[in-house]
Amino acid sequence: MSAFKIVAAAVATLILITSAGCASTREHESTGEYFDDSVITGKVKSAIMADDSLKVSEINVETFKGVVQLSGFVNSSADISKAVQVARAVDGVTDVKNDMQLKK
User: Fold this and answer.
1) Are 59 and 83 in contact (CB under 8 A)?
2) Are 70 and 100 in contact (CB under 8 A)?
3) What does pTM read for this prediction?
4) Which H or E element spans position 61?
5) What's the CA gap between 18 and 92, in Å, rounded?
6) CA 80, 41, 68: angle at the middle one, nearest 5?
7) Cα–Cα distance between 54 and 47 in angstroms, integer?
8) Nearest partner of 65 among 42, 90, 44, 92, judged by Cα
9) Tens digit of each residue's pLDDT (9 = 90 or more) over 59-68
């Protein structure tokens, strides 16, 4: 029986370590969160592309735990406001961080 207990303890430890590797932390996403964020990023990019007044090639979109970060260079402050508004309207977005800058 003692060999069984040792093997069982080893298997339990292995499962615990493996599942902890998939867990979410403040700086790292779980696999599910990464997938969800990828979907959100795609939806935001599509929504920006669908807006005729915005040039999607000039706006970069990244998502981490539902928070969308917009960056890049745009022509006007109206473009910045519109891109933020469009991103906020996407399902799953919890916040939008604006790092876009005006072209000089």
Assistant:
1) yes
2) yes
3) 0.71
4) strand 59-64
5) 28
6) 50
7) 10
8) 92
9) 999 999 999 9
